[in-house]
Amino acid sequence: MGNSFGKLYKLMSFGESHGKVIGGVIDGCPSNIEIDFDYIQDKLDRRKPGQSDITTDRKEDDKLEILSGVFENKTLGTPLAFIVKNKSYDSSTYKKYKDFYRPSHADFTYQKKYNIRDYRGGGRSSARETISRVVAGSIAEIILRKYNIEIFSYVSKIYDFSLDLNCCNIDKESIEKNILRFPDNSKVDEIISFLKKVKSKGDSVGGEITTVVKGLKPGIGEPVFDKLNAKLANALMSINAAKFFKLGFQDKDISASLGSEVNDEIISTDGTTKTNYSGGIQGGISNGNDLIFTIGFKPVSSIKIKQNMINSEGIRKEVKIDGKHDPCVVPRAVPIVESMTSMVILDYIFINNSKTI
To answer: How much is the pTM?
Structure first.
């Protein structure tokens, strides 16, 4: 049904935007992993609404509750179940227009697929669902520490404000020094001012998130249909509002380049090259270089501007939808991208380990 992700490290998630809880069950988590609850909560706090003036006004604690699979702060190897309670929401703003299909939302498609839908904030199609991904991904990251793998993401573009720094020169510590998670402070004030104006008008903008995976050994990935880059694209394109996946450090349009311009150099004995247009993957398998990729996000579809909408009876009407929405979802999506990446990498390491004698 599309609510489970992974093969050996597997998440099944549940819950709706305005339901009682968002939760999940992790199957395949190894035993005796010490859970860093502060780390997981920090990830949830980076994702949660109401962080600043440039995010949605919805206020949520997003406090994690573990229901099973952990004893004395260590995993048991059994299914790990968890929930996060929804506390602060107002469904009344949605009831008035429950029969209308909001433009670029999943309202119409969910209705056609299930012949019923939860109109409160988008129900299951809401980005609130990504809480479960962040929890499972955070635990995956904790396990990946044992493999000396580091994963971090940052905002590399908002609207037409682009990061000038090469991803190889990013100071990881600078990412969380501003509310945009944009590691170039010289542009931050200008972008924040712009986003406040966008929010005041009830509009939205898109952007991009770049991810770097360090320490991944060569040989991780599967041939043909289960290529590492294909699974990463699948995972990351499943995030709400994600619209494109771009592999490698691309300082030029490789589709409009010569092979002599974008072929990576031969990998050295320490697994490094001076260029990384391949993004650390060749033939769908990691080559020992840093994994580098970028995800593009569209402007949030939930805007407070009058738009033409069609209701369930096919009647067109100009409607203004109220609610609490982000003018740009990209800063809050950073921990989600990190989490989905962590689950993919850990799952493939487990798959790789299962094939050795």
So the answer is: 0.94
